[in-house]
Write a structure and sequence with these properties.
mainly alpha
């Protein structure tokens, strides 16, 4: 049965030869996957960099330790902020603990917004 499935796949590949538009479409999809891989790499790097900054700023407070206590927690908190979930509560906690700690958070949000607009 595996051989029959492999033959079906080969038949699909032969169809690509007859339709040039299908080849162009498949090539475009592969290019998109390559670009999205680099975008994901850049996104993780930006989250990691800002997580280090936010852990240094807010990780030592007991009230903020659950969200910013380690780099991993900070990355998760920043990711939830990127998805716009519970961002107001996190910003209020930071503002009540520190007066200007929302500035790095704002810079991170602006950078990620700019990254979304460009892509």
């Amino acid at each position: 049965f595996r051989l029959l499935r492999a033959i079906r796949v080969v038949r699909i590949v032969r169809v690509f030869r007859f339709f040039k538009e299908l080849v162009i479409l498949a090539d475009g999809m592969l290019s998109t996957v390559r670009i999205l891989t680099w975008l994901l790499t850049l996104f993780i790097f930006v989250l990691y960099a800002f997580a280090i900054v936010m852990t240094g700023i807010a990780g030592d407070r007991s009230g903020l330790f659950a969200s910013w206590g380690s780099v991993e927690r900070s990355m998760f908190t920043l990711y939830t902020l990127v998805t716009m979930e519970n961002w107001l509560d996190v910003a209020d906690q930071l503002d009540s603990a520190y007066n200007n700690s929302g500035i790095p958070l704002l810079v991170c949000a602006c950078f990620i917004f700019f990254m979304n607009v460009v892509i």
